[in-house]
Fold each of these.
Amino acid sequence: MNDLWASTTGNAQATVKLETADDGFLFRLTNTNDTKLLQNQLGNVVQIHKLLKNGVSFSTKELRQLATAQQDLMAEYDRQQKVVVQDALKVAATYSVVLQRAFDAVATLDVLVGLAHQAAYSPHGYCRPTLIDGDDCAGHGIQLQGARHPCVEVQESVSDYIPNDVDLTHDRSNVLLVTGPNMGGKSTYIRAVGAIVLLAQIGAFVPCQSATIHIRHHILARVGAGDWQDQGISTFLAEMLESAAILRTATARSLIIVDELGRGTSTFDGYGLARAIAEYMVRNVGNLCVFATHFHELTSLADVFTNVRNCHVTAQRDVQGLTFLYQIQPGPCLESFGIQVAELAGVPAVVVQDAQRKARELE
């Protein structure tokens, strides 16, 4: 085409560009003034398609035939490519069972190696738990010495984790009521119990000095606070739905973990529900339970039932403020130190002082 255009114009330097288009290829002359010459001299050879500022686009019969042939080849290429992919997938599918078994083996190995690595290299030490089975629960339960939360203790912000003992024994201490200040470690303590029992019952070592566990059929938890907006369920309703499911499921061989039940409603309603649920577990189910609460009135359950025990996390007040000791001690704690925690969080002093005044009035 360059030779033909050069002979037509008499300019050996004249060139024609070849460009791709939606339906194939087009020639383009960059000077739109060449349109009339193109039509007059080569009108029987070329077909003009577009006349734009950047030139005139045209094609020839041979170019259109080549474009059609190229499109046919590409279509055949795509068809053959799909055949190759389908054949490869058919062959790969024959290995799916083998691959799935390999994936399962690698996943299991990954979990076991992870558990073993953590147990072997923990600076605080893991122990092999002693597991006891049998439907006779009397005198058995969960006894942990120096228990730690396996996830909290490895956090970078935790430099010196304070371990604690746990004694949940049928007919002696079915329920541990845990009271104490906000941020004092109640939630970490009760969740550590669940994590340790779970680790023990899947065959792993546990973050304790020693652990004796009567095998649990369920680990049932009511912890955290959150609504289910997509289902129109409020925080308190979600709390009650979970509590109802726990009470329907629980047996004497269940471990139930409860964290501040009843906080999503009024104080009186929340306390009434928390006490009723705790009493139902003691009277009708006989399961083991760690129950963290800010309802100090709930600690009187230990005066009614001989198998309910009170314990609390400790804190000290000094001139620098509030110091959390994270140590579990026997007996109830009748202070939540909520105002002191608000002060630590940077609540304005005038608000803290007003809160202290109102708290004294209520007392």
Amino acid sequence: MTTPILAAVLEKPGAPLQIRELLLDDPEDNEVLIRTERVGLCHSDLHYLKGSLDISLPVVLGHEVAGIVERVGSAVTRIKTGERVVATVTPSCGACRNCISGRPTQCERVDSMRERQRPRLLSPDGSSVESLGGIGAFAEAFLVKEASVAVVGSDLPPQVACLLGCCISTGVGAVIHGAKVGPEDTVAVIGCGGVGIAAIQGARLAGARRIIAIDAVPAKLELARNFGATDTVVSSSDPTETLIQVRSLLPQGVSHAIEAVGRSQTAELAFSLLRPNGTATILGLMPTGSELRIPADALVYGDRHLQGAYMGANRFLSDVDMFTDHYLNNRLDLDAMVTKELPFERINEGFEAMAEASTIRVVLNMTDRQL
């Protein structure tokens, strides 16, 4: 028996999302059906919306989500109905080589874990509709595998809980797990959107002695200081000018550079900011076919490192508890990161608001519908 729901469907890149009725399948044995409370608008969603990243169409985007468990499959043991949960696009099996070595975001079985026997979503005419990352949270309800969700307490409000699934897991996770920043380190964060601000907070939590926020928009840098940046640099269209500004603060360069924009130029800038033995960690998703060029002598002679950290190399199930404790003890500021909350039917307006200088995260309120 299927459940009728309203969902925002991407039918053509560059076109507005269309809110229409779909049919959500029943949970399979190891799945949970979640009624959506809040969902954040992420730049990766925007990439798919604009067509800079490929995805099968039609599709329901959305993955940074919190909701209440409404139904569980017969084989579900860890999750109970009525619990508030957050979801991740990187479920892990816990048993493969990458999982047991502490890299669950690179689980070797992630694709098979997302597979299901029947289509998750159907149009009323019976045609299937895809869902991003096995979630598809721009909808009144969604289905995910039990391995994709973590329980959060009722003392964590849904408008900030949803951030844990992507923005915080990626930004804070990249600093703690990917870059392994410590008190001796100096950190530059390129891009002060949601993930960048989360990385700044992660660097502060890790005790970094200097945190340089870099962005082309001065208003973003003012916000960055509120979250822990010790220094700010207005980036130039000429990367050399930006490099000069950073070197005026730290002549040898930084020990860690975190890129949270998703452009080849900013990834290359991250590498150029490094001191010898430094590490550049690239977080931003880039358009299909993007390539990087870095100077070989700086790489080899300087023992510099360039690495990715997909979804921040997070350890989702244990990280959620850590993030929650830091939030409840006023060490991780999630409330101020939610700069706009809109009802579901204004989702396209929300994506437009992402370009505003004051925006860190736009969150959709799925329980306050005006449809």
Amino acid sequence: MEISLYLLALQQTLDSGKSLPFPAGVLINGQTSNTFTGDQGKTYMFRISNVGLSTSLNFRIQGHSLKLVEVEGSHTIQNTYDSLDVHVGQSVAVLVTLNQPPKDYYIVASTRFTKLVLTATSVLHYTNSHTPVSGPVPAGPTYQIHWSVQQARTFRWNLTANAARPNPQGSYHYGKVTPTKTIILANSAPLINEKQRYAFNRVSYVNPDTPLKLADYFNIPGVYSSDSIQTVPSSGSAFIATPVVPASLHDFLEIVFQNNENTLQSMHLDGYDFWVVGYGFGQWTAAKRRTYNLVDALTRHTAQVYPNSWTTILVSLDNQGMWNLRSAIWERQYLGQQFYLRVWNPVRSLANEYNIPSNTLLCGKALGRHP
């Protein structure tokens, strides 16, 4: 009951046109303190997920190295790090070998790119330890953006893992496919009707009274707009709409996230993983393609965009449907920084998409229609 009331209060704050307050703290597995126990000499896998609402985190374990082995389903080149940045909506997996003298060690997660640094600690306990944690909590990076960019560029696909040999990627290689379309998305934080909203390319999304998939299936007009959001940023005032960007099944898209704000962004696409091929500072131009990693970029589901910077992803649209592209930062997503990507093939086939279930609940303008 208390959680429901808290969430309602957050919703009312956003609905009133105000931003959410700065987080009150950081938790690890929902707790202010945890203990993880392991045997000296053994190696354990830790999966770190940032499930917070708004803030990037840095993860580290006192006196221990983190060997990165997986990022959101992608097997990585197994580089070793002292600490890792994990942005909102992202997950990584690391191997940690308990090769230190037997005692207890701090596990630390702290906020990134914030003036006030919030820190959560837990304990890594060796089973043969008789010494509690001691010393200062290991410090992590705070506002070093270049440090984070350089680390992100070292995350690379392991081309020899989890695939056929000797050609791990088969006959398909993302770096040799010519994009069928380029979409440049500039995020913004406009005031609309004197209330805080968020937008892509000046368009702030609002939910319609009819679910988009039902409107699409029954070809119901007036529910969403296919031309309100442009594929390149433009000048002008922001406005509210229900934007859907049309695309064809098997298109290969280049999507550039252009962040002209002073805060880090985190972008997520439902229904797909995508290759994160480039990060850069300032304004994206076509010349930036020369900096792309077209060999061993990771596939993942959520990509960070650094302040006053750009991030480029490549995505193969092989999954028909209506898919949400949004900010993973929940205030921004709730207040309109999202849209839907309609991946479509005019030839109806069960190989592409199943039929709508006969017991589908209908609402809005779809009431009274029959699947």
Amino acid sequence: MRNIGADVTVVRGDVCHMDDVIQTVSACNKTGYAIGGVIQAAMRIDADLFHRMSSEAWHSVIQPKVTGSWNLHKALEVYDATLDFFLMTSSVSGSVGSAAESNYCAANAFLDGFARWRRAQNKTAVSVGLGMIEEVGFLHENPEIEAMQLRKGIQPLNESEFLQIIDLAIAESMSERNNATCYDLTKPHILTGMEPMGIREGFEGYSSGVGEFAATDPRMAIIAAAMTAHGATESAKPHAKDLEHLAANIPWLKNVNLHAMASLISKIDAPSLEIGALALIRERFALMLLTVPDEIDNHRLLIDFGVDSMLGAEFRTWLWNAFRVDISFLNILSSGQTLATLARKVAENLAVKG
């Protein structure tokens, strides 16, 4: 930054501590330049299922975004009239959720709401809900989590696209401040990384991973109904025929229903219906737990993975969408249930009902 002519002053501190924030604002004032804006990018990750999450883990993730943003808001109150931007880096998880990151989801949801709250007071603010940044940062250093986000339909941004989005958010904030007497409350939240075609596949029932979360999320009910109605045309028939043609030479696949066939077509190398279903179920279960399939033991009891009522309900809905097989909620949460026994039940149901 200095090489391109910027004056850089580094102040060590913690945005969660008000004294450190005030010290940083004081350091800015000593430069002799007006404070033009702030970028709040503090974050921490400490993932676990909610019922196993410690209070310390919850607050350690919440505080950088919640307490940190509030401290910046209070410390910069006297500069609000001239502040060009107040940008907070949020996450797509604040909108779509994530089973093992309730603390992180809540923290980002706060940022999205906080940006609207500031705008309602005619103060500049924007919360940028980022998906994946594929060339730098946390997800770049954790490729297994990046792969899981891709399966959920969240698409990556490269570094150049990320910087363009930040530039757009800042420019939008400056335009609002200069030209509006009352801020537009539709603009303080910019959501990135959602892939429309993946979401459509989820609604149509032809995807076991990408976009499937949208098909089962009640918050997506209106758009789901619209997209389903739009897709209910004759154009869907060739797709069904293509699936049947592909499955014709796979004995264990050709007699199952169309939804199961569409889900299982990616497992055509499996030697049997049960093994193919198990592979697919294992992938989905790993996705729900934010881990990789290789870390999942097919014969370990589901309750030992920490499957609670929320995950059980989500898993049951997915089983129906993927296979059109209804496994009872109590069955999924029963003491003897494993992925292997679950796959056997699915295969038995498909074999009987087709």
